[in-house]
């Protein structure tokens, strides 16, 4: 019997456990044990239901185009629970001088693909619009200039469209997704398509149109899928369904792993009051935690893992009455550039984004605070955070009414930051890890931060562990 330990009970660790459970049921001589230091499983995936409202403490959805989370949901019997975002209502605003300005149609992430909507948009100055027009005529860089050197998103965007595009669009967009800043995040890790389009076309605009045309030619489905996918009862449905498939005796909450040691071709785990031995381990924790556990085992690997930084965030769910709902704009919400001087980074109009998230007579807003450089917000009391949120919602949306109820959730060091050079770091991590038999890594620190990426990383880590113990042949 081969024993595999999973350290970390978030979506990555649970996905790994599910794959091992399936192999065990198929007859493979495997025993797995999952250790989670906190008192609950699922990590940031946590849903509360209050007076007909579905409040997400963490992510409220995942990208539809990445298949791994959707496939897992269907395998877990949740196919009929999957819902798409209301993309007919998908309009996003940018706060500019305390005024909400819609992102113009045809702007794909931050690349203009339609001239007229952008030309007439008050979001950009005439100078930036002129840069956008000129960008269409950028020539393909010569072979000598195309290198594998990394750069920041801000550097690439400024080179093509100017600084205003970075400040008003690139930075708030990335802040909303990564909790990071465009001047630090890696193009090749965060927006690899942009780097490739520049190499192939010179112009990001021409490259984006060519990419869209290629995708439309390859698909036979004329109906576009929604951008985001969620579940009718909230994201915790995935966690609950996974736990229901796993052996209760294999799940250990409130159980921290204090250290690892390689001993006689096995891994010795030091727990609170005992030790345990395993043939392989899956580290499904933040990279910093994995670094601490591996410090005495492989110093170089530990150092590389410790070099991956994280940002923290605060999510405030606020529910309002019918009067507030009627005064809110159509759309999914708004983003706030740093130059606006607000503490709120973004606000989602959840009742517009997904059906069934709030009764028709309620408005449900999700406010995001924190991110890179603003981690101190975690030390602020919940009452003070709510005061900040109410003040800024009044300034931006004109909401003077008190919310009917609110929930504040603080998440420390949860969003991995793919800094410039991240892909090279990941290669070094992979090389060092190969020197340690029976060690697999999973989570959002390596190849993608979204839920689908974490699901995929957990499944891949399980497959690696099975192979490392010599059980990779079909049962």
What does the secondary structure layout of this molecule look like, with pairings?
Layout: E1 2-7, H1 11-25, E2 30-35, E3 47-50, E4 53-56, E5 62-63, H2 68-75, E6 82-84, E7 92-96, E8 99-102, E9 107-108, E10 111-112, H3 115-119, H4 126-135, H5 153-161, H6 163-178, H7 187-190, H8 192-201, H9 204-218, E11 228-231, H10 236-245, E12 251-252, E13 259-263, E14 266-270, E15 275-278, E16 280-283, H11 287-294, H12 299-306, E17 309-320, H13 322-327, E18 333-335, E19 344-349, H14 350-353, E20 363-370, H15 382-397, E21 405-417, H16 422-433, E22 439-441, H17 451-468
Parallel strand pairs: 1-2, 1-16, 2-12, 7-18, 16-22
Antiparallel strand pairs: 3-4, 5-11, 6-11, 7-8, 9-10, 13-14, 14-15, 17-20, 17-21, 18-19, 19-20
Can you give a write-up of this model?
The structure is a single chain. This protein has 475 residues and is of the alpha+beta class. Helix content is 37%, strand content 23%. It has 17 helices and 22 strands. Strand 18 (333-335) and strand 19 form a beta hairpin. 44% of the residues are buried.
């Amino acid at each position: 019997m081969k024993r595999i330990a999973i350290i970390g009970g978030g979506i990555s660790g649970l996905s790994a456990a599910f794959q091992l459970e399936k192999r065990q049921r198929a007859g493979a001589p495997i025993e797995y044990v999952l250790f989670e230091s906190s008192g609950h499983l699922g990590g940031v995936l946590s849903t509360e239901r209050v007076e007909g409202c579905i409040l997400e403490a963490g992510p409220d959805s995942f990208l539809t185009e990445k298949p791994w989370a959707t496939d897992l949901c269907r395998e877990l019997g949740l196919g009929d629970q999957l819902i798409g975002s209301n993309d007919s209502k998908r309009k996003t605003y940018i706060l500019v001088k305390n005024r909400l300005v819609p992102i113009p149609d045809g702007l794909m992430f931050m690349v203009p693909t339609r001239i007229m909507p952008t030309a007439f948009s008050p979001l950009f100055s005439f100078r930036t619009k002129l840069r956008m027009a000129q960008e269409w005529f950028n020539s393909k860089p010569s072979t000598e200039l195309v290198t594998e050197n990394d750069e920041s998103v801000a550097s690439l965007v400024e080179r093509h469209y100017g600084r205003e595009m970075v400040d008003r669009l690139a930075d708030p967009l990335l802040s909303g997704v990564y909790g990071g800043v465009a001047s630090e995040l890696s193009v090749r890790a965060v927006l690899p398509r942009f780097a490739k389009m520049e190499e192939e076309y010179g112009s990001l605009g021409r490259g984006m149109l060519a990419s869209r045309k290629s995708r439309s030619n390859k698909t036979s489905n004329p109906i576009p899928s929604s951008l985001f996918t969620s579940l009718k009862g909230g994201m915790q449905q995935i966690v609950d369904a996974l736990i229901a498939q796993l052996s209760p005796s294999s799940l250990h909450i409130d159980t921290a792993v204090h250290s690892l040691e390689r001993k006689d071709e096995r891994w010795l785990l030091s727990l609170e009051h005992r030790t345990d031995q395993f043939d392989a381990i899956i580290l499904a924790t933040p990279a910093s935690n994995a670094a601490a556990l591996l410090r005495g085992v492989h110093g170089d690997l530990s150092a590389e893992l410790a070099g991956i930084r994280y940002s923290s965030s605060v999510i405030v769910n606020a529910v309002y009455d019918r009067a507030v709902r009627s005064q809110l704009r159509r759309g999914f919400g708004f983003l706030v550039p740093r130059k606006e001087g607000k503490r709120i980074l973004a606000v989602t109009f959840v009742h517009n984004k997904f059906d069934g998230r709030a009764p028709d007579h309620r408005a449900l807003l999700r406010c995001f605070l924190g991110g890179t450089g603003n981690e101190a917000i975690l030390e602020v009391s919940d009452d003070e955070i709510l005061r900040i949120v109410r003040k800024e919602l009044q300034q931006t949306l004109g909401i003077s009414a008190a919310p009917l109820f609110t929930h504040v959730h603080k998440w420390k060091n949860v969003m991995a930051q793919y800094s410039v050079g991240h892909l090279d770091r990941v290669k070094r991590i992979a090389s060092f890890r190969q020197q340690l038999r029976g060690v697999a890594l999973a989570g959002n620190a390596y190849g993608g931060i979204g839920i689908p990426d974490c699901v995929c990383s957990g499944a891949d880590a399980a497959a690696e562990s099975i192979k490392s113990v010599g059980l990779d042949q079909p049962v």
